[in-house]
Each structure stands twice: as C-alpha cells, then as structure tokens.
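dude i think i finally got it to work??
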Amino acid sequence: MNELVKLLGIEYPVLQGAMAWVSEHRLVAAVSNGGGLGIIGTGAADGGFVRDQIRKTRELTDRPFGVNIVMLSPFADEVVRVCIEEKAPVVTTGAGNPGKYIEGLKEAGAVVIPVIPSAALAKRVEKAGADAVVAEGGEAGGHIGDISTLCLVPQVCDAVSIPVIAAGGIADGRGAAAAFMLGASGVQLGTRFLTAKECVISQAYKDRVIAAADTDTVVTGRFTGHPVRVLRNKLTREILSKEKEDISPEEFEELMSGTLRKAVVDGDADYGSLMAGQSAGLVKAEQSAAEIIMDIVSGIKEVRKI
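look at this
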C-alpha cells in the first residue's frame, strides 16, 4: 500500500502500458481484475471505438481501469470528450503535453497521468494539475524518448512531488524493485503483457516476444522525431536500409502504414511491426494477466529479502 495504490484504488502498483491494437477490453479487464490497472490503448482510434471499449471493459470488471489518449491523434479532442462523458476512472496521455485537457478530465472525476520522457515535461504537467506521471525510458517498446529509465526516473522523482511510475525495460520483480529504489511509486509494463493469455495479438507475435534475446530489438525512425522500438525482422532490415538512403518522413510513414495491424491481427512476423521493449529477452512464457502481476509482486518481495 502506498500513495499511488490509494490514488488509483488498486491492489498492486502495477500498470499495464497502453498499446494500440493490443490493449483492448479483454486484456484491460484481466489486468484490473488481477489487482493492477489495465489501460485501454486508443492509438489513432475515434471516439466511437473508445466509447465501445470503455463500456465493454465495464462489462468485464468493476475495478478501476484507464484510457490512454495520444496527443498526436487527430481524434484527441473527441476521445477526451468521450472519456469525460463515460467518466473514465483514469486517463493516461502520451506523445505530447496534455495540459489543456487536464482540468476538464479532473472535473469529470478522472485521475490524470501523463506519460513523460523528461523531467522538464513532468514539471509542466504537474503544474497543470496532473495527479501522477509515468516516466518512460528509451528501453520501452513502441514510441520512445532518448533517456534511459535508470537515469530518467530519479531525476523525475526529484523534479516533482506527485507519484512517479517507472516504465521502460521492466518485466519482472527485480526491475520493479529497482524502480522503487530509484524513488518510483509504481511500475508500468507493456512488453510483458504482450504474452498474457488474455492478450489478443497473434500467436506469431507472442512467439517472437518469447523467443527474443537481449539484442533483438532495434529503433527505427529516429530521423522523423518519433522513434519506435521493435523486434528485428525483414521489415526492420528494409526500413533501416532505406533510412541510409535518406528517405523522407513521408516515405517512412507510408512504409510503416498498416504494419502494426499486420503483426497483431494477421500474424505477419516478417513484415509486421513487432513493437516490443528491450525487456523482451526476460519474457519466457505465456501466463494469465493475474499470474504476471503476482509474479512481479512476489519477485519484489524476494528481492527485498536480500
């Protein structure tokens, strides 16, 4: 029990990272029912999709859950309105400064938690009224920042007085315990939950995560300003080759269009975008979301005995 657990009304300070096409109502509800906080990944989805996901999640759990809003989404305003109307218990945000939305979300009763890549942005969102922040390091999967989790978390903890949740490179109790030692009040995991039994991604995607070694992720698209960490495959080899040819951001976006769906839905492990963090090498088996959470919690307890 700590400040974050009380704030969110959950049992354990373990959050499931929001992942577009991946963290839909079944995984989200399973994580929340397991004592953590499941978070709906909205990506570039419109308000109708988000409303449907919120309602379907409520059919499967009576526990708190979250909705992630991507600031770069063309539907960000619409999704915020839906979260307010549906009274989403928790709202996390990513890919930008959510300052203009925080007051309205909090007035509707939501706990607001921006995902931030720097201490400077953490201070700005705290001033705007954020209840907590997720400090996400560059080890994470998907869209990432430049600073590593080990360096980012303590600097953010020093910069703000609200709870800090560590993310990026954490997949077990050892990583979570380390995050707490750095000053974090909780942890957020994405890659570990890719292999949850309730996760709807293709089996080919899950198998690639389970088979991954420590060096099997690569970052693409750094030149666009929105780098993405994924597992190596034929797609990444093609992308990195074209990056050396100095392709434009528009050409890059065209090449990447639809590739996440290929991985998640179609099971194309060669030309799908297999978003995963550097912690993939620590993920060795499929488990239920509840088992994953309890494995992390028991791992923390074991480390604390040393």
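The longest strand covers residues 65-70.
im so relieved honestly
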